[in-house]
TrEMBL record, chains A, B, C, D:
NCBIfam families: PFKA_ATP (TIGR02482), PRK03202.1 (NF002872). The gene is pfkA. ADP binds at residues 25-29, 159, 190-192, 218-220. The lineage of its organism: Bacteria, Pseudomonadati, Bacteroidota, Flavobacteriia, Flavobacteriales. Pathway: Carbohydrate degradation; glycolysis; D-glyceraldehyde 3-phosphate and glycerone phosphate from D-glucose: step 3/4. It catalyses: beta-D-fructose 6-phosphate + ATP = beta-D-fructose 1,6-bisphosphate + ADP + H(+). Residues 7-283 form the Phosphofructokinase domain. This is ATP-dependent 6-phosphofructokinase.
């Protein structure tokens, strides 16, 4: 295999997720292993445009595998959406003789990478990092598993107080257009209902279901609501509706918010990040470009960035059914 | 010592807090140790009025020391605020030949207990259980330490994402009229500012402080806000004000909510609960009544319920100063 | 589909693992959903022989999804290994008109189930519960993911003190004949070396590797050792060898032990358990028998118990390579 | 108050404990607040002797409040026990114009500090950092509270598996000469017996107690053993004794080991560390020397180093009694 790359840059872009640091560490160490010079770019595409990057060696990434967030910091860059911005970024890379780029982020970040490649022919490779698990080409995005555990831990805590007071809790979790977090965490948290963007349960059926749940002897209930759920305008309106249309429940709302994005990554996310970093660098080394690395049937596979961007992950219908049966 | 009591009832009342189960366990086992019959009352004073209690022995409380919430459930009872309600409760106790009552709860619950004693001469003993730490006569209420660790863990997670994006986060924590949670968790979470009900920092000083913080090189900031803080009407208005009056920060809000009330109690809360349960039962056995057990200078002490109710805990001014110095 | 089963029994057998309770809950609720009577058998095959089982309905399994261990308790039964023991068990089942059995456990438990079926034609279905992940027919056994997170959390803590003192730690993790826990947790914990039963690194290469690691600037090191590792007789002998053959390291040993088997299951294990319980009951309902349910390429699949027992899971060679590259 | 100090050095010495980083952060930021130059010394007294220290400002300690271990690293120095070693250290300090020293560590470290002061008149101040809580002059040493939570979490996990299998577990916890960890964690973990160095229960009484426990209906038991317990030579011999002298229990041993020293500090330890750092620096600023800062009745107080070293903390007898009653 001809050594096609000599200097590689890595950046994190978009919303951060647990495991990004582990992925940075893996990219850097894989470069060290293959004697490729590695540069860390700060604040995503913003830093690329400003030439804000510095060399990283195996020791630069010491002690970060268990840290949430990203030591390279992340940002959303308006300028990189312009041709001028991307030109500046290209110039900075050329100036530093960097010949390949690993982008850790979500679909927005990959769109940028793909356009950048199309315009300048610059070799790019994507690593899917987002807690939402909404990217085609990988069964798990980096941070998804960790976020699930964070959410489930919070549900467990809320369950303690819910069942002490016979309360109904609406708990909002992240996941803008997809219900993966809500569905998995809802099952694991023993939620009575799970409201997701992919399925409009309808308010009447929700009330009906909660009433059935109550009759069956449950004295408290948890309803998990994905951010992007289609039923109500927002979770507080949901509460109001239930307050008006159901008796005997003291209804409360909890919006879990940004703590879902942080915390030490789970074992799964650290291993996944380590594997993805190796695969990303070695794929570039083999002359591949415009791909995203991903986990498919337990193996590291490449998916064209184009597919990763255009596709839409689907909810596992089996899980919906399991959820229904579990709330018997 | 003459054995003054033979049948004791225990209930949890008001908002639940981690450690209540450990306290129930301790009351029950101390009764078993002294051959006192023990009854668990369900749903606080509500259950007392309805005669909803059942005998508990040492094995009834197996495996609950590490569970949040309260197996006896809690409730706020309107009826117990009436003379008629309390009469019913008294009748039920007399009927069951119960001769003493341990109430685990906050100041509202203690007020009920005190009136109940004044009207019927029924021996009562209080155990302070609330995460707010707002009860005079104990340096720590049950659940306070656990809630602090829960809050700090959440702040750590939010810090991960805040520092990855150069964001300013307002984090609302519990503590209606007192800033104990905010102040301690704020220091432990490395917050740049802490807004508490006891002190009106003022919006101008907040902006000034955040600007100073930024100039000193900080790229992200965390501001902890107690529920009952006096500055703004609520935390979202605070955000709006900062959005308008400060540049360069992407401001976000996180309301931690009810998960602060749940979770396995910390070692501290479990030991405290165990000590309080022993002290409560043995004090009743010694003929004491109308007291609350508490931790004062590391020792179990009794405080008249009257004092516990009327008093108001004060914020530790040393902590305020430490917080200021730490955000240098 | 003709309703082939009316009364189903479920038991847990062998070493317990986090997620067993979630699986019991799922079996019980799936039975309730399909109007099948469900019985919980205590202490595995022991309880079956003694007829120690009782009916469970949807409410019997309330609040157990997040509890480690098994509410049905587990045991290893010598008597069930005899024909007489199995005959007794069969008689008890017939007496209670139970017509199918779900066994949650490892390969030993499945062997018992298979023989039981062969002798009496009794319908059995297996759910793989063990932290070791050593069962063919599922990418993940119940409890594996949780155990990994427990181990990684312990490694993180030990790393804190190791790096404060420039120490070398040998950490022993569970996994008798297989290195799955060691390999995954080792990568996630940033271990410098991982010793597993499947691969004999050799003591010389270990010393060499640690020396290289030291030269590269690392001031502390973590070596993960699977219980069943082939190099030394045990981990304390490993320590002695390194003490004698390497300079400049203060070597310590930590044996993580049984805490690896407990704790609240991770989100992954709870969802997996819920899915497996549904699949197990519904497969029996469809007339299937002598299978184990498992996760294959993300889907619930059946594997003949015979294959599950005889097969041997293999270590993922890609992970070994990732581990090598990461310790660059 | 005349500003008596201008340049201050801080070091961590002896065994590390969670909260040391938070204390370093507090010392550094308090120096920044008072415009004192601050130097961090690496590897304790070793680094002092070698002049291995560098200036630290408020930003140097960013993001360490929640990290276990010590960023300054720790070591035990043989050379500092010699007059020559201490002379070298003094020369290095004089050379750098450093005029005061904060030592974070245990009694061994304080002995060194005291001798150093007596020989050279160099102002020193101690901050008690050890998980053992064995230092007179403070109700809590840094790291004690965190270690307790770590131990209790491990006991909870082991309890899961113990109660699933009707097992008796001996769990060894740290605390060489004192039983503070064992006693507190034992109560919080619901242990049936707690063996501590301060009290020789005797093997016969242990067997008797376990038998009583069994008769009362307990099907599993946890015995917490402090490292320095006087009963048996070690925990494995204890197991052998019980194996021989008790029937019906499957006895297991778990040695928790060094993970007790690591992990993110609890809220309590972070607040305590922050308070101690402020008190230490400001006490030196007020011209105090040869003291240790400590928590006494909830307040920051100074204790002469001499007393801190010579004294011996006593076990809280009330806790022993509580433990007895709880295992009813």
């Amino acid at each position: 295999m001809p050594k096609t790359i000599k200097k590689l840059a890595v950046l994190t872009s978009g919303g951060d997720s647990p495991g990004m640091n582990a992925a940075i560490r893996s990219v850097v160490r894989t470069c060290a292993y293959h004697n490729i010079e590695c540069f860390g770019v700060y604040r995503g595409y913003e830093g690329l445009i400003e030439g804000d990057f510095s060399p990283m060696d195996a020791r630069s990434v010491r002690g970060i595998i268990n840290k949430g967030g990203t030591i390279l910091k992340s940002a959303r860059s308006k300028e990189f959406r312009t041709k001028e911005g991307r030109q500046k970024a290209f110039d900075k890379l050329v100036e530093a003789e960097i010949d390949s780029l690993v982008v850790i982020g979500g679909d927005g970040s990959f769109t940028g990478a793909l356009i950048f490649n199309q315009e300048f022919g610059f070799p790019v490779m994507g690593i899917p990092g987002t807690i939402d698990n909404d990217i085609v080409g990988t069964s798990h995005t980096l941070g998804f598993d960790t976020a699930l555990n964070t959410v489930v831990d919070a549900i467990d805590k809320i369950r303690d107080t819910a069942s002490s007071h016979n309360r109904l809790f609406f708990i909002e979790v992240m996941g803008r257009d997809v219900g993966h977090i809500a569905l998995n965490a809802g099952i694991a948290g023993g939620a009575e209902e799970i409201l997701i963007p992919e399925e409009d349960l309808g308010l009447d059926r929700l009330v009906e279901s909660l009433n059935r749940s109550k009759k069956s002897g449950k004295t408290s209930s948890i309803v998990i609501v994905a951010e992007g759920d289609k039923i109500g305008k927002n979770i507080f309106q949901l509460k109001d509706y239930i307050d008006e249309n159901m008796e005997g429940y003291d209804v409360r709302v909890s919006v879990l918010g940004h703590m879902q994005r942080g915390g030490p990554p789970s074992c799964f996310d650290r291993v996944l990040a380590s594997r993805m970093g190796v695969k990303a660098v070695e794929s570039l080394l083999e002359g591949q470009t415009n791909y995203m690395v991903g986990l498919i049937n337990g193996k590291m596979e490449l998916t064209p960035l184009d597919n990763a961007i255009k596709g839409k992950t689907k909810i596992n219908l089996e899980l919906l059914r399991v959820s229904d049966i579990m709330s018997t």
